[in-house]
Design goal:
By secondary structure, this protein is an alpha/beta fold. 45% of the residues lie in helices and 18% in strands. It is elongated.
Length: 417
């Protein structure tokens, strides 16, 4: 008998249908679940009994909305989002952000850890993440609730073939190591849970789809616009990663700049990202073209960073205004090319340059639109620094839905996989 037609798989498929109906429509009666799923009442009753026994669902007396109906009132079902926990992490060069969530994705506790002068070893990093989860469980009073899955957003990419990290500046000491396998083993040992990792920009797109500006959209692009530039691609409702997981590495596309980028920095992000704003501003200050920039940096042009350019422009500094106009044009040309290829409904601007203000985002949108043969909306993220943590939690929840919600025995589960 083929796997697709075994009673085990049919039972699991039916169980997931019932569970999804409860999560989507709660509070909902057993009879309503049967109508929603098309399953027979005996089948629904058997599955609901299993769900309640495993703690995935609860059955209670009906609330006011159900009691208003005529006739006998059936008990109603709801999803027990506290049956398990998931954790999400956002890794940066100097820190890691963390969030602990229930099975509905609601964050119950947040934390962070700052690294020293150099990143930790992979084993030390795993211990840091485990310690953060234990700390958040304690702060939320949930030490007795199991962690079911962990997601981690990386500053580079995870090679899906061998689990190594690629294109992640600042983490050279992790290069070539089986990062995914090491962390999977540590989380399995400590929490008996699954571990999933991916690009933090891809996870940010997941967060926007679930919680932010891409809700209800099937095609959108999240633009990480900071010192680096990267894309999270939502295509037909799913994150598009490419053949090896590196899709969206727009920061490395060729760009014309007389000054070549340093090692580990892509050509486009060098010529149009946050480093370009700071680099051109330092030159303007050194050449005496911008009194405002020279004042803002305390007379030390080497101290200039991208936010100072926007601050000087807001004061009416002409040189800062020219820098913003020039680099906005470069960014717009790159993103217009992306839109011509993917035809997204919306570009969502996130990371450091998204904080430059409404005028910058509006100007960028105008420049992109002028280059496009069809309209595309441009919007700043509303999730700010939470995007990758929320996306990592969302990815962990997808792992839970695919792996954890099994109602049959382990041998049967292996047969169905």
């Amino acid at each position: 008998m083929s796997t697709a037609t075994t009673p085990t798989v049919m039972r699991q498929t039916n169980a997931l249908s019932v569970l999804k109906a409860i999560r989507r429509r709660a509070p909902i009666s057993r009879a309503e679940v049967a109508r929603e799923t098309g399953l027979s009442k005996p089948t629904v009753n058997a599955i609901v009994g299993d769900l309640i026994a495993k703690g995935y669902a609860r059955e209670t007396e009906p609330g006011p909305s159900h009691r208003m109906r005529p006739g006998p009132q059936a008990n109603v079902l709801s999803f027990n989002a506290k049956a398990g926990l998931v954790a999400g992490f956002d890794l940066g060069v100097s820190r890691v952000r963390a969030g602990l969530a229930d099975l509905d994705g609601a964050i119950l506790c947040s934390s962070h850890h700052t690294f020293g002068d150099t990143p930790p070893s992979v084993d030390e990093f795993a211990a840091i993440l485990i310690g953060l989860i234990e700390k958040m469980q304690a702060e939320a009073g949930l030490q007795d609730v199991d962690v079911w899955a962990v997601g981690l957003g990386l500053p580079g990419f995870l090679d899906r073939r061998d689990g190594t990290i690629k294109l992640a500046p600042g983490f050279d000491r992790w290069s070539g190591l089986p990062f995914r396998d090491i962390l999977s083993a540590r989380f399995a040992e400590r929490f008996a849970c699954s571990f999933v990792a991916g690009g933090r920009v891809q996870f940010a797109m997941l967060a926007e789809h679930r919680h932010g500006a891409a809700q209800g959209l099937d095609d959108a692009v999240y633009v990480h616009l900071g010192k680096g530039i990267g894309l999270g691609l939502l295509v037909r409702g799913e994150i598009f990663e490419g053949s090896e997981g590196f899709a969206g590495e727009v920061g490395s596309i060729p760009a014309d700049d007389p000054e070549p980028p340093p090692p580990g920095v892509g050509a486009f992000e060098w010529t149009a990202g946050g480093r370009a704003f700071a680099r051109l501003a330092r030159r303007a200050a050194e050449d005496g073209e911008s009194p405002a920039l020279l004042r803002l940096c305390g007379g030390d042009p080497a101290a200039i960073e991208a936010p100072m350019v926007f601050e000087a422009a807001a004061e009416g500094d002409a040189a800062a205004g020219r820098i913003i106009a020039d680099l906005s044009g470069r960014i717009a040309r790159g993103l217009a090319g992306v839109c011509c290829i993917l035809n997204p409904s919306k570009l969502i601007i996130g990371a450091g340059l998204s904080r430059a203000g409404d005028d910058f985002i509006a100007g960028l949108a105008t420049r992109i639109s002028a280059l496009m043969p069809f309209p595309v909306a441009v919007e700043r993220t509303r999730l700010v620094d939470r995007t990758t943590v929320l996306g990592a939690i969302e990815q962990a929840l997808r792992v839970v839905e695919g792996e954890r919600f099994f109602l049959f025995s382990e041998p049967d589960r292996e047969l169905a996989s």
